[in-house]
């Protein structure tokens, strides 16, 4: 990004301050800002930081809080550089401005690293788009890809340090004292000779004071970063004052319940609304087309959600199957395996000559792995409150993509996007499902029929489960060779399955008007970038398009690709008659960062030590989202089913902002991943998803949850991701333990004996 100059605007009482930002991370900023206008008693020092009259700090929060702790971690960065207590930093949800954008989600599917954005074209059927131009125009603000802290690391620290420099500079000018003689303690600037003032007293003058030289704190001077700090969102969640999407209450608000065609891609034919319209509390029925990749249906609107939900279920409908015929997951599985055999695929990575190594090999090891469709099953079902009044649209919504939500709302209501206001609430789980905007479009369409009254659209659990954007079904064939000296010679991985990123872009980006045709990194991530030192490697993927709606799922392609690769590494260890840990050490001789994580997990788990009778250990190691995680799972059988007792996690996620949040996210990842590994599967028959609620899509119960122990590698690297990297290693670690325990190699998810 050397050729770019970024501007950050600020407004204060005495004028405007323009700060040049020439070194912002390329994944973080996609354009110039508008003014972040201060309210009464506030002064904006830049596009991120406002100072209140009492000296407390307001941070423009660009990311959605869905349990990952971002409302604590990002204020910690600001508090550190401003030298204020964490309790004095408050958040204000950032508006739809490109300076808060995060193009990591946009470029996640490109076949090159997100940092290589300059003038790299992506081919679509309508022509060629220049990615950097598209990213600048869109300025997507997304919470995803485990990128919140990584993106904010330099940006927020620099914003806070710049604000601090202006505040101290203002004190220096007012008191006529040298800057280097001033000290800041808990947001109070003082001098040994006596003068002192808190930030609120200096803010107005600081808004017109150039910051001069801005220097970030040295690591040795950190007081907050790297320390456990209490979660700022916990008190409100405990006392019930936290506002999730379902908590929104507005004067005159109506409720809407949806009923979508049970067959994916289908539509309602004749609808007889008479029975519903005479039921208590019901006001109207609104037909819903297939917005943003959703299935068509209708909504019933009335005074309470329970009333309209019962009415929606009472409506007789002549449902129509999709024009292309009914979808069937078993048939799709067969088609993927056929595609694996028949089609060449896109080569994501190659090294040496796999073909020659296979020709010279003394023997081959080969295995076929399978992963099913999975639902997100977030605790809070899809919901959105919308109001369309006087040519403007107002949204209160738990979303990971507020700008995309505003764009789809503008398209549905036929208003300029500038006339759409978005209030982002807390998210009761996201996992990628709230990167979609279908439910926002539906809410706006319903609100357009409600004469200016706000309406809260709520999906039932059954609609949520049967009309998700599922993690795609994937298959992979892995082949390794052993040479004449008994050494591993090559690794070839070929996978097949639907691509997520192109479908997501088609659904949610208005600038795209046709199908997107491009290789998708998410299909192959975690396979084309394996750290193991095979002399000859080839990784290719066959992209399919099977009409099942697919979307980003926590850790995306890594979630199943790690199962494929790490299970296969254990298969190779068995074939080579080596300990799985020893083989990994051998293959990681030139990867010291991975070795450090591997050894930490093994040592803390007591790898090779005794276990109670009937238990076994399994190991897995995987890098995703800039972090390396190794896990050791201790497993037994209970009534013939896997029972995981303990999971030891080691993680290198670079510099740690809050170790407590890292541990929480590892625990969350293990529970989430273990649920999927043991139970997760979505079956589609005659176009209908068979799993409809938690009884047939079970979650891990409290009594089944293992002890999770997290150990963090000390690192001076910039922060990596934390919310997702703990998911991928879990399934292979458990599968490898089950093989050690039973002698059965499970190559399909979920892991059933």
Structure report:
It is a single chain. With 753 residues, this protein is an alpha+beta fold. It folds into 3 domains: 6-230, Aldehyde Oxidoreductase, domain 4, CATH 3.30.365; 245-323 and 382-458, 2-Layer Sandwich (Aldehyde Oxidoreductase, domain 4), CATH 3.30.365.10; 329-374 and 470-742, Aldehyde oxidase/xanthine dehydrogenase, molybdopterin binding domain (Aldehyde Oxidoreductase, domain 4, 2-Layer Sandwich), CATH 3.30.365. The strands form 9 sheets. It has a 7-stranded mixed beta sheet with strand order 14-15-12-22-19-20-21. The chain has a 5-stranded mixed beta sheet with strand order 17-25-24-23-18, with helices on both faces. Helix 1 runs parallel beside helix 4 and helix 16 packs across helix 17. It is globular. The model is unreliable at 1-35 and 103-137 (pLDDT under 50).
Report the uncertain regions: 1-35, 103-137
Terminal-residue CA separation: 52 Å
Helix content: 25-40%
Task: Please indicate the percent range of residues in DSSP E strands (runs of 2 or more).
Answer: 15-25%
Total helix count?
20
CATH topology of the largest domain: Aldehyde Oxidoreductase, domain 4
What is the β-strand count?
31
Rg over CA atoms, rounded to whole Å, is 27 Å
Spatial strand order of the main sheet:
14-15-12-22-19-20-21
> Which of globular, elongated, flat, extended, rod-shaped describes the shape?
globular
Number of domains: 3
CATH hierarchy class name of the largest domain: Alpha Beta
Sheet bearing the most strands, described? 7 strands, mixed
Average pLDDT taken over every residue: 90
Q: Which CATH architecture of the largest domain would you pick? A: 2-Layer Sandwich
CATH homologous superfamily descriptor of the largest domain: Aldehyde oxidase/xanthine dehydrogenase, molybdopterin binding domain
Q: What structural class is derived from the secondary structure elements?
A: alpha+beta
């Amino acid at each position: 990004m050397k050729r770019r100059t970024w501007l950050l605007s600020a407004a204060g009482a005495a004028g405007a301050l323009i700060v040049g930002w020439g070194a912002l991370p390329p994944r973080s900023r996609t354009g110039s800002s508008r003014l972040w206008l201060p309210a009464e008693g506030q002064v904006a020092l830049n596009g991120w930081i406002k100072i209140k009259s009492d000296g407390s700090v307001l941070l423009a929060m660009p990311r959605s809080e869905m349990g990952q702790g971002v409302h604590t971690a990002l204020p910690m960065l600001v508090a550190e550089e401003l030298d204020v207590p964490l309790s004095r930093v408050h958040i204000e949800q950032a508006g739809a401005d490109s300076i808060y954008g995060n193009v990591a989600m946009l470029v996640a599917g490109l076949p090159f690293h997100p940092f290589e954005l300059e003038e790299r074209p992506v081919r679509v059927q309508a022509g060629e788009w220049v990615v950097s131009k598209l990213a600048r125009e869109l300025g997507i603000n997304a919470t995803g890809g485990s990128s919140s802290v990584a993106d904010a690391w330099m940006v927020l620290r620099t914003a806070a340090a710049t604000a601090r420099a202006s505040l101290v500079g203002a004190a220096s000018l007012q008191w006529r004292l040298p800057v280097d003689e001033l000290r800041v303690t808990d947001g109070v600037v003082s001098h040994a000779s006596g003068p002192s003032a808190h930030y609120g007293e200096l803010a107005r003058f600081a808004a017109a004071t150039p910051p001069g030289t801005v220097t970030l704190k040295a690591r040795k001077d950190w007081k907050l970063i790297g320390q456990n700090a209490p979660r700022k969102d916990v008190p409100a969640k405990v006392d019930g004052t936290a506002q999730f999407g379902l908590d929104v209450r507005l004067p005159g608000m109506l409720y809407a319940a949806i009923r979508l065609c049970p067959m994916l891609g289908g539509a309602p034919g004749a609808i007889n609304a008479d029975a519903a319209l005479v039921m208590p509390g019901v006001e109207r029925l609104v037909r819903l087309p297939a917005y943003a990749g959703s299935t068509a249906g209708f909504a019933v609107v009335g005074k309470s959600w329970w009333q309209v939900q019962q009415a929606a279920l009472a409506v007789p409908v002549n449902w129509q199957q999709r024009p292309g015929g009914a979808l069937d997951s078993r048939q799709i599985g067969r088609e993927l395996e056929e595609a694996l055999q028949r089609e060449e695929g896109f080569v994501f990575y190659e090294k040496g000559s796999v073909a020659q190594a296979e020709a010279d090999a003394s023997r081959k090891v080969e295995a076929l792995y399978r992963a099913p469709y999975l639902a997100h099953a977030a605790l809070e079902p899809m919901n959105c409150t919308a109001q369309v009044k006087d040519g403007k649209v107002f949204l209160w919504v738990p979303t990971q993509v507020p700008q995309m939500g505003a764009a789809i709302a503008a398209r549905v209501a036929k208003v300029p996007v500038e006339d759409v206001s978005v209030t982002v609430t807390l998210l009761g789980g996201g996992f990628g499902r709230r990167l979609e905007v279908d439910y926002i479009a539906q809410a706006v369409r319903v609100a357009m029929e409600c004469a200016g009254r706000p309406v809260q659209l709520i999906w039932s659990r059954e609609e949520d489960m049967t009309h998700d954007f599922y993690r795609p079904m994937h298959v992979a064939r892995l082949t390794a060779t052993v040479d004449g000296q008994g050494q591993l010679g090559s690794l070839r991985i070929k996978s097949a399955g639907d691509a997520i990123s192109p479908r997501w872009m088609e659904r949610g980006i208005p600038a795209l008007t046709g199908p997107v045709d491009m290789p998708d990194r998410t299909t192959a991530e975690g396979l084309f970038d394996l750290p193991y030192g095979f002399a000859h490697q080839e990784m290719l993927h066959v992209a399919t398009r099977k009409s099942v709606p697919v979307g980003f799922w926590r850790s995306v392609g890594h979630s199943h690709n790690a199962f494929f690769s790490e299970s296969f590494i254990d298969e190779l260890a068995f074939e080579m008659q080596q300990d799985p840990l020893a083989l990994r050490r051998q293959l990681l001789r030139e990867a010291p960062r991975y070795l450090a994580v591997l050894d930490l997990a093994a040592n803390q788990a007591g790898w090779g030590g005794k276990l109670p009778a009937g238990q076994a250990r399994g190991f897995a190691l995987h890098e995703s989202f800039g972090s390396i995680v190794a896990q050791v799972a201790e497993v037994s059988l209970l009534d013939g089913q896997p029972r995981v007792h303990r999971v030891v996690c080691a993680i290198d996620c670079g510099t740690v902002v809050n170790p407590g949040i890292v541990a929480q996210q590892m625990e969350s990842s293990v529970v989430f991943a273990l649920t999927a590994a043991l139970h997760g599967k979505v079956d589609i028959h005659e176009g209908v998803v068979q799993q409809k609620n938690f009884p047939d899509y079970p979650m891990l119960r409290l009594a089944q949850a293992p002890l999770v122990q997290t150990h963090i590698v000390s690192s001076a690297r910039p922060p990596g991701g934390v919310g997702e990297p703990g998911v991928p290693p879990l399934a292979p670690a458990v599968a490898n333990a089950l093989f050690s325990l039973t002698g059965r190699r499970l190559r399909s998810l979920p892991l059933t004996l």
